[in-house]
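job 3f2a | input accepted
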Amino acid sequence: MTRRWKLITASAVAGLLIVGVAAVVAPSSGNAVLLPQPITLTFAGELTGGEGLGNFTSPHPPIEGGVNRTYTVPRGQRLVIDSVYVEAEEFVVAPYSGRSGIQAGVVSGYDLGKNCAFPGWERDYGVTLTNPVSQPPEDNITQKQFYATIPGPIFVEGGRTVSGLALAPGGDDVVWMHVVAHGHLEVSLVNPSPPTCG
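job 3f2a | predicted structure (198 res):
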């Protein structure tokens, strides 16, 4: 093997490790096996009402994955969420009132349309954010920061969507939400078929 060929081979292997794409390994049986592929999902937005993540109306870093804030697990695979990290920033400005409670996490479900009441089509994994770290008021603004974590594993079958969960009733101030889910994709040939509505 020439020195040039060795350098090219080493560069290609290093490139695969840096990019982090899923590697395909051929075991002795001859069947290829798809290794788990690490994935991080980020859902962010501003609570403009009692629930849901709306578009930011003030400056904020860009949202990973675009404005839809929804990820669909590919068919033939399943998503295993190992952990979820949630943070919220609440800005209480007079005459607005603070929220009585903030819950956040992730939610998964089949896209069956808004009028489908199929039982069990949606699964919520949320926690109540407690123990706010309050900062002293400045220019009549009180800023509160909340944190929470959700341990996994959380299994999401292929064909289901995943999005951020946010609930904050009882107030009308500004709340910025940031939900990060760390996990991996793995091959799954036993995913159930999506239910039909009607």
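job 3f2a | Helices lie at 3-19.
job 3f2a | closed
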